[in-house]
Amino acid sequence: MKLLLIMPKFFNYPEFIIEELKLMGYEVDFFDDRPSTNAFIKAVIRLNKNLINIYIKKYFSKMMDTVNSKKYDVVLVISGQSLSFSEDMFAELKSSQSQAKFVLYQWDSQKNFPYIEKFQHFFDKCYSFDRLDAQNNKRLTFLPLFYARKFEALGSINFQEFVYDFCFVGTAHPKKYKFISIISNQLQKIYSKQFIYYYFPSRIVYIYRKVRNKEFRRARYNEFHFEPLSNEIFNEIYNTSRCILDSPQDNQVGLTIRVIEALGAKKKLITTNEDVVNYDFYREENIYIYNGKFDLDNIFFNSEYREIENEIYEKYSLRHWLKVILEE
Question: Angle 106-66-115 (CA atoms, 0-180°, nearest 5)?
Answer without folding.
Answer: 25
